[in-house]
Structures are given as C-alpha cells and as structure tokens.
Amino acid sequence: MSKVVNNVDEAIRDINDGANIMFGGFGLCGIPENCIAALVRKGVKGLTCISNNAGVDDFGLGLLLQKHQIKKMIASYVGENAEFERQMLSGEMEVELVPQGTLATRCMAAGYGMPAIFTPAGVGTEVAQGKEVRKFKFNGVEKDYLMEYAFDADFAIVKAWKGDTEGNLIYRATARNFNPVMAMAGKITIAEVEHLVQPGELNPDHIHTPGIYVHRIFQGEKFEKRIEQRTVRKKIKLHHKLLLFDNR
Q: How many CB atoms lie within 10 A of CB 44?
C-alpha cells in the first residue's frame, strides 16, 4: 500500500473530534503548518494536543486555540501565547505541564513500546501529585523516582525537510528536536515534507526517521518558517582612528 497521499486534507481525513494528537516541532521551528491549517478548516474539536509548546497567537497551534478546538494541552512551555493563557486561567482548557525531558522520554517510551518510565524530574513538586514514586539505587545513590506513563496518541503529525515515498525522513537543524521521537510514537504517523523524492534518492546515513514509522506522507506547500522572536543589535557607529603603537 502506498504511503503517499495527494494532499493535506487526505492525510488528515480520519482525524475526528476527541482525537489525541502529537505535534512535532520546537517553538515555531519544524511544525506541521499544513496539517494544522487543515485541522482548522476541518473544524475538529475536543482535541488533546501533545506538543513541546503551544505556538503563538496567530501561528502554529495558536490557530487551533483561536477556534477553541483544543480541549487539553500537554506541553512543557506555554509562553508567547495570550489566548492560551486566557483559556487556561478561565478553565476553558485543561493544561498538563510536563518537564521537557520527561515529555521527550514519554514520547520515546511510546515508540519503544514501554508503558512507563521512571524519572527524578518532578519529584517533590506539583508535577508528582497523584503519581507513583519509587525508590531506586542507581550508581550507588538511592533516591526517589517518579513514574510517568508513555503517551497514548492516536496520531503523530510531523514535518520534515525531505522524505521519500517509503516514508523515510530527514530533518534540518532544530526541526530534528521533537519530530523524530513523536514520529515513532503515534498509532498513525503523518509526515508533511518540503521535498518528496523517490526511494534511493536519500543517503541512508542521513535518514533520521525510518519509513517503518510513517503511515502517510505528502509534499506540503507554503511553509512560512517564522522566527518566534527576532533580536538584533543596535547599529554601532565606528569612528576610524589612527592607532599609534609605541614599541619602546
């Protein structure tokens, strides 16, 4: 069965209300822009979204937030988004904050088929409320570890720089952050790519996500690639001076 679909609407055809979805990306880098826009158009609601962050007000997952399509957000960073803050504080949306390393490891555990992991992150904080804590001796030191369950996602949606028709993916730079672990973890993984090529055109040594993890792939379009925050230095006027060096 071919993994290539004709367009983004076909790729998300069976994502319905109440779905649990992982979204790849880090900040605004490497996010599946085409799929997010298609979900907005489709109008699906009651979504549980697992993502490192929640986009900004008018881009990324912020577009789903504007339409009140997200019921629960699981993320490690939720700044830069006023609408997210409003919905969280008003109780319109449930929010689960997860330490970034724990978020990545829970994704990885799902990909590995492990039901849970143990981590020292979050022990003794609000993150640990209602969760099992066990004591382990590791490297000669005994301490408490928090049990965290692997994510159970219906779909993982990722964005890659280049992919082939067999689903093998290559990411660029920061886009390689959460995309690979999330691609492993979804029951159905959808990949949008900037360049779709034929099998054999990708160097096997450069592939980050093997095609075995990918179920649908399509070539996206109109990637905006925003910069979340741009910081520049003020111009400095340089005065040319003659410097005399005394070597005495």
A: 19
**CA distance linking residue 26 with residue 77, whole number of Å:** 10
Residue 110 to residue 148: CA distance in whole angstroms: 11
What is the Cα–Cα distance from 43 to 45, expressed in whole angstroms?
6
Provide the residue type at 198 as one letter: Q
Average pLDDT over residues 143-158: 97
Using a cut of 0.90, tell me whether the model's pTM lies above it.
no
Instruction: Say how far apart CA 96 and CA 128 lie, in whole Å.
Output: 12
Question: What is the rounded CA–CA span in Å between residue 160 and residue 170?
Answer: 6
In percent, the amount of the chain with pLDDT more than 90 equals 79
Domains and CATH numbers, the chain: 8-114+151-219 (3.40.1080.10), 116-149 (no CATH)
pLDDT in tens, 188-237: 999 999 999 999 999 999 999 999 999 999 999 888 877 767 777 776 55
User: What does the alpha-carbon distance between residue 135 and residue 58 come to, in Å, rounded to a whole number?
Assistant: 45
Cβ 185 vs Cβ 154: under 8 Å: no
* Token pair belonging to 151: 């994510």
